[in-house]
Amino acid sequence: MSSQASKDHPDGQKPPLLVDDHTVATIRDSKIFILLRGLPGSGKTTLAREIEQKYKDTSRLISADQYEIKPAVRSSSGGDYSKLDDELTTCFEKREARVVILDDTHHDRERLDKLFDMANTYHFAVVVLEPKTPWRLDCAQLKDRNHWKLSLEELKNLRPTLEKELLPLYFGWFLAKRDEDFLRKTSHDFLEQLGNLKAFKKRLPAFGYEDKQKLDLLKHFAKSPNILHCTTKFCDYGKVLGSEEYAQQEAVKKAYSKGYTLHITALCVTPKTVGAQVELTVDQLLTWPLDAEKEVMPRDNLPRGSRAHITLGTAAEVQDVQTGIDLLEFVKLQQSGRDGENVGELTGLVTGKVNYYENGMWMLNLSRKIEVKSIFSGYYGKPGVSVPLRGSKKGILNQCQIM
Ligand code: 2AM
């Protein structure tokens, strides 16, 4: 990086994916689509190049400038994105680059939606980065800095679309691809073993099945999130009360694009959902909303962080948000001293004691916590993108991380 560039982006203002070793290692195990966003001349290209260099063996930088797409209030009137999108698709498909960087203004919602759809199709987690240069919104300065020679007027027209932060559908920790594959495989193994337990077969009516019927839990939980994640704050793109304030919190800003290790302590099954219970660290609790538990259980006083989970699968017609609600039902029973009945032990990919609570509620208390690497970011695409739980079995078992 040139000394001018270093001056423009002092280390303290650089995103964690450039300066934090744990984050760099996590990004290397992930599939990440990084969108640089901001006005022309604000410093996106410098940042984009620095990221490309940091991950040079696995990154690919694509820039709208390369395709001579001039920033305009409506992206569609600024230039033709078809060639750029072809390159992007090739990049996602070829799987050579796991860090795909796109340098463009990214001010047009329609354009962004298209990009988020593409990221979903190829299972890339999204990170949106904006340069922190002092002049990033200063049109008078940008007029002399942008190589498109946009006039003050043109810049002022673009500014309103970019000065407001882009809020996601939800914020959370998104699992690194490698660890996600492992957790999906673990969840398959767990469901297969649980379904074969005598004690489970005896309690089928809670799942709406007759006593002697066969229940394939992998089929029962027909849907699974596109990218496994632990949600912190559901924002609905800013429509949820308090989401803007959440995004503005210093801890959230600092956490954005940073790598975290999540600790899974138990796997939970109910007739509606299967999920992993996550035990948050003190550092992780800094980004946990104060009302996360109250949001779904307003009358209870549940421990902070006790809703933290990763949805692994849901039954047909059941929404993902149900997994956290189901988890809190377990927590409530435990709080009242009812720890469930121990019905056996599992000794497969996961080991631990299986407890039966009531109404089809099963919990596997892991004898060793599972650690999964993740990146804190947002999900910006359309709601409801899911994949069948019975997905690829190409796990990477030899690289599993059980504590
Ligand atoms: P989950 O994190 O509990 O699995 C989109 O719906 C995502 O936001 C899902 O991942 C969902 O579930 C999470 N989520 C959290 N709170 C939500 C809410 N109040 N409404 C809808 N989804 C919510």
The biggest beta sheet is recorded as: 8 strands, antiparallel
Described by the principal axes of the CA atoms, the overall outline is elongated
Briefly note the CATH topology name of the largest domain. 2',3'-cyclic nucleotide 3'-phosphodiesterase fold
Number of strands: 14
Heteromolecules bound: adenosine-2'-monophosphate
Q: Number of helical runs? A: 17
Rg (CA only)? 23 Å
Please, what is the CATH homologous superfamily of the largest domain?
2',3'-cyclic nucleotide 3'-phosphodiesterase superfamily
Share of β-strand residues: 15-25%
Structural class: alpha+beta
The CATH architecture of the largest domain is: Alpha-Beta Complex
CATH class of the largest domain: Alpha Beta
Q: Number of domains in the coordinates?
A: 2
Q: Determine the fraction of residues in helical runs and give it as a percent range.
A: 25-40%
Low-confidence stretches are 1-5, 391-403
